[in-house]
Design brief:
Order of helices and strands: EEHEEHHEHEEHEHEHHHHEHEEHEEH
Radius of gyration: 23 Å
Number of strands: 14
CATH architecture of the largest domain: 2-Layer Sandwich
Oligomer: single chain
Helix content: 25-40%
CATH topology of the largest domain: Dna Ligase, domain 1
Number of helices: 13
Length: 403
Amino acid sequence: MCILVKMEVTDKNNLPDKIIFHVDMDAFFASCEESINPELKKKPLIVGGTREDTRSIVSCPNYLARARGVKTAMALTKAMQLCPDGNFIRSTRGLYSTYSKKVREIFYNFTPQIQPISIDEAFLDVTKVLHLHNFDPVLLAKRIKDEIKNTLGITCSIGISTSKVCSKIASKENKPDGITLVPFGKEKEFLSELKVERIPGVGKAMLPKLHKYGIYKIGDILKFEKSFFEGEIGDFSGFLWNVAQGLDKREVRIEEEDRKSLSKENTFNADTNDMNFLRRELNILLEKACFRMRKEKLLAKTITVKAKGYDFTVIQKSYTRPVYSNLESEMYEDVMELLDKVMKSGKKVRLIGIKLSELIDETDYVQEEMFMDVATNKRLTENIDKLRNKFSFDIIKYGKSLK
């Protein structure tokens, strides 16, 4: 069912200077699986692993499973308790990226101004194409949704406003299969009554701090001066304040401007299967890749570790994390698990490498729980980066990179 927060827009003179869509696919991984196997729609579906994969986590539950309390990144064993009658399946290799590309092709039928920010969401600047749709952004949003649904058999929800952050928040308002239009010029009023946790990045760690000062709704932020939050929240206080004001001047960057991936690799003088050596070398590559990402103000979500054997065969394994990051401390455990999988055979290798992909600009993403440990981690990493920029990369090293 499509629910509309509707306002009359029939004349181009009523339109603001910029109109941005945030398109968010509904339960994307599960929806793709249901599209190729409609039988899966009849029961709660949990993508992430079979019942035998007891150490796995939930990648994506469908809405029947979500109604039972299943959430992304939940332990699969917990999901089994909540949905004992559910369908539990592993991810279908290549399916989601294929659907993501098809969705993007549909976007291009309507506007060239597209900025993907993950495999299942994107910003669209539709300002210059509204004349083709009676100057009605809701009509355009409905046409995009209909083409995706009729062509691919999956649904999306769309938020419409004059800024990225408002559109992103609005796209969650009427999920699934909904359209939400934030009345132009009324962004602050629209946001004011929403729960403060609707702000991207405000999670369980930050909520107690905000609640301590009686901040339960986004509008409550404006009860205090901007400077009040700086001691309690630090670097991100300005972000919260701007959201509460409905302000966000970021532009939609065209996809072609985005780097697709960042890779680092090292070829050894002698073939080896020494895992201590390989872990140390891979960690150095991870540090260098993250250092470069921070310089370019990028975040990554997918990690790939590869090894080239003495016989030149290549083995690689990938993992898509629940959240984006450019901090090596957050990626280390995942990287080492991938290395263990790549080196499972015990064969000697001549090259080890890492690739970080599904990159986005860090200004387009505010990480969940970033206001606590992540902020401390970030400040430490920034100080290390300053030393490396001033002197050389090897001027300081983590213990994991030492022999």
